[in-house]
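Same chain as my last thread, 128 residues:
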Amino acid sequence: MSTPRTIDDLLTDARSRLRRIPADAVADEIADGAVLVDIRPAAQRAEEGDVPGALVIERNVLEWRADPTSDARIPEAVDHDVRWIVVCQQGYTSSLAAAALQDLGLHRATDVIGGQEALREIGYAPTD
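reply #2:
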């Protein structure tokens, strides 16, 4: 019988496939055309604040909205080459979500190291 996998195992596997980005690189990524997606639930966003310039797509529907072949896709999901940058509160759930997007063939998907908390710490605001 094999040893059961843990959430730490899943997180390690997910992060091994990602080229995660630091909070201070997000503005440049957005300027280069990346789509920043906040997957936090409404209650958490209400308590902690919005991420400036981010699309809100809650985690439970992310794959359907980002998959360019889905009937439920959003306008930004134009093809499999979109650069999705996923953000959650601290950068854990976003790693799992970005890996799930990669499983759909969205190989440029990644997440923000430290999540919304790291963005807030640096005073993140998108550049125009």
